[in-house]
Specification:
The complex is a heterodimer.
Chain A lengths: L5 E10 L6 E11 L4 E5 L6 H9 L6 E6 L2 E2 L7 E4 L11 H13 L5 H14 L15 H14 L4 E5 L7 H18 L2 E6 L2 H7 L2 E5 L7 E6 L8 H4 L3 H17 L3 H11 L4 H18 L1
Parallel strand pairs in A: 3-8, 3-9, 6-7, 7-8
Antiparallel strand pairs in A: 1-2, 1-4, 4-5, 9-10
Helix pairs in contact in A: 2-3, 2-4, 3-4, 6-8
Chain B lengths: L1 H6 L11 H34 L2 E2 L2 E2 L3 H39 L16 H32 L1 H14 L4 H15 L9 H14 L1 H12 L3 H9 L4 H39 L4 H11 L4 H30 L9
Antiparallel strand pairs in B: 1-2
Classes of the chains: A alpha/beta, B mainly alpha.
Chain lengths: 295, 333
């Protein structure tokens, strides 16, 4: 990449365990242009989340580093907003207050009270949540919570938007809605996005490039697939599009042939076939368990 | 039956409950109350039966009937004392008015009434003492617990001390506290009685620990995602504590506070007995020393009062938690 905006450079990480350190990532190199939409895909436990957490600054890489706009990333910050898998809204604050918490941190010095108020409402209307400003997260559905989580991140005007399986916990219909919303917002705002996903269709539909990761331990970048589908993309038209099917095949081939993982393969297959919620929940458990062990 | 039916009519005389609904309601209430009621009746019968067969140096052990009589006499004593007090102030006022009428510049004295503290006065004193001790404990314990929960280092260094002092009986603290209060609280015009401070601080020492421990657990078990949100937003420590830590830990903090208050109330009675601070503990001790024929009955009334007050204090804490907690759907028990 010539004009690299975000450079993930030779990143490796080891987690201390009781006997010998566990090496999760090895020599991960990704370079991302401004406004690019990148998906990370790979089997459960391959360290996708770890890459994202290193970019976010939540984990510190053992070697290598992340450079954003010429500056090295050494701690978490609002310029790299994270959309968490399980929304991570503060349950005691209303939808509005959750976004307000973030906006106040970022724009306290540059925006007036009225401007902040308008900005919060603007971002919530971007994700179509302006009808429920004063509801608590406990009173709205899972998809709505995730919308608010996205609005909270958008409102921070981050340099990079990091999404950790943002739609993983949602049912297929809600997920499709949110994917469409995300594409619409992306076309308006042109954010730089890194998204982790398990869902091959989602990766092809949304991304400019798909980064496929090899299996852990010592996971690294396997292949990078450039998706040259024209935007705006329409999911119904693309479903039959030979180019789309071709990209989809390539990702599947990587996951099933080149990185065949008997334990995890079943899960990904289930997800590719628009998994049921139960399987989805199971694979997420595995994933978070893996993260937990790693941490 | 017509009276009961009238209760269920509103001002316009419209029946709010149809008779069938009324029957359902009564049946529902009956189901909810039947078992507790049966339990209480059986307990009272057993108590009376056993009591009838025990003769002590102070006469027969009181059964529910005698205790009921004792409680009535305690109420009567209280009313008599209040009448006497009112009469005392009335006399004093009359006397002063008379003096002033004779000589407008007369030196008028107003003396407080110093009658015997009744059972109900003792209850109020006890409640005041326990609240004071509990409040001091909470002011120390909640911040300490939050600090322990946030920092592994603080926890590591404070934990051995907590674990050592937690099992210490109030009776062991009391002599030390008594001497310390005598030595340190020297004032010509004391705001508090020394015996009051001794009891209150003994309560404090014993009810610090449950709140510290539970707050610590509550703070350490905050959702990792929420902590990450705070890190991404780079929230300053105080905002982090106020907007993330405390709301998350509220249920555990309240669990700790309820355990603390229950401990404090138990400890207080023992402390009052030994410190001779006015209160329910002293009331029991005095009755014990008195050794009259109705002493046992009066002590039994105090025992029941202590139990019921402890129960109400716990309910009160639950009600406060219900108001403060953000999670209105949570089932509190």
């Amino acid at each position: 990449m010539k004009n690299s905006y975000l450079e993930i450079s030779h990143v490796g990480i080891e987690f201390p365990t009781d006997d010998k350190p566990f090496r999760a990532l090895q020599a991960v190199d990704i370079s991302i242009a401004k406004g690019e939409f990148i998906s990370l895909i790979g089997h459960s436990g391959c360290g996708k989340s770890t890459v994202l957490n290193i970019v976010a600054g939540l984990y510190e890489a053992t070697e290598g580093g992340v450079i954003l706009e010429g500056k090295e990333v050494d701690k978490p910050g609002p310029d790299r907003a994270v959309v968490f898998q399980n929304h991570a809204l503060l349950p005691w604050l209303t939808v509005y207050q959750n976004v307000e918490l973030a906006v106040k941190r970022v724009f306290k010095k540059t925006k007036s009270k009225a401007e902040m108020h308008d900005w919060i409402e603007h971002n919530l209307s971007l994700v179509h949540m302006d009808h429920a400003l004063h509801k608590l997260p406990g009173e709205i559905s899972g998809g709505m919570k995730q919308r608010v989580g996205i609005a909270r991140c958008l409102a921070m005007q981050p340099k990079v938007l990091l999404m950790d399986e943002p739609f993983g916990a949602l049912d297929a219909l809600t997920r499709a809605h949110l994917q469409d919303s995300l594409m619409e917002i992306q076309s308006q705002l042109g954010n730089t996005v890194i998204m982790i996903t398990h869902d091959v269709d989602e990766a092809v539909l949304l991304s400019d490039r798909i980064v496929m990761m090899t299996n852990g331990p010592s996971a690294t970048v396997g292949e990078i697939l450039e998706v040259k589908l024209a935007r705006p993309r329409d999911r119904l038209a693309l479903a039959e599009d030979p180019e789309f099917i071709h990209y989809r095949q390539q990702v599947l081939r990587f996951l099933y042939e080149k990185q065949k993982n008997p334990a995890a393969a079943q899960e990904v297959k289930a997800e590719v076939n628009q998994s049921t919620d139960a399987q989805q929940a199971m694979s997420q458990d595995d994933d978070s368990a893996a993260k937990h062990e790693a941490a | 039956m017509t009276e009961i039916a009238a209760i269920f009519r509103n001002e316009k005389g419209k029946i709010l409950f149809a008779p069938s609904q009324l029957i359902l309601l009564l049946r529902h209430l009956g189901k909810a109350l039947a078992l507790p009621f049966a339990g209480i009746v059986i307990f009272l019968m057993l108590w009376q039966g056993v009591a009838n067969n025990i003769t002590t140096s102070l006469g027969q052990f009181p059964g529910p009937v005698q205790v009921w009589d004792s409680s009535k006499s305690l109420v009567a004593e209280h009313q008599r004392e209040r009448e006497r007090e009112a009469a005392f102030y009335q006399r004093q006022e009359d006397r002063n008015a008379e003096k002033l009428a004779k000589d407008p510049l007369a030196d008028v004295k107003i003396r407080p009434y110093t009658g015997k503290a009744t059972f109900f006065d003792q209850i109020l004193t006890s409640l005041y003492t326990v609240s004071f001790g509990f409040l001091v404990a909470s002011i120390i314990a909640i911040p300490l617990g939050i600090a322990c929960g946030l920092s592994e280092k603080v926890y590591q260094s404070v934990n051995p001390i907590i674990q050592t002092f937690k099992p210490v009986s109030p009776l062991a603290w009391l002599p030390l506290v008594t001497i310390l209060v005598s030595a340190l609280y020297v004032s010509d015009d004391p705001m508090f009685e020394k015996s009051f401070l001794t009891s209150a601080f003994t309560v404090t020492l014993c009810c610090l620990w449950p709140t510290v421990i539970n707050t610590t657990v509550g703070v350490t078990s905050i959702d990792r995602d929420l902590i990450n949100v705070s890190r991404v937003l780079q929230l300053p420590s105080l905002v982090h504590v106020r907007s993330i830590v405390i709301p998350s830990a509220i249920p555990m903090i309240f669990t700790g506070l309820r355990l603390s208050l229950a401990t404090g109330w138990m400890v207080l009675i023992a402390a009052e007995m030994l410190a001779q601070n006015p209160g329910l503990g002293k009331f029991i001790w005095d009755e014990f020393q008195n050794g009259s024929s109705d002493s046992l009955g009066r002590i039994m009334v105090a025992v029941l009062a202590i139990g019921l007050i402890g129960f109400s204090l716990d309910r009160l804490m639950l009600a406060i938690q219900g108001r403060i907690s953000w999670d209105k759907q949570a089932i509190l028990r």
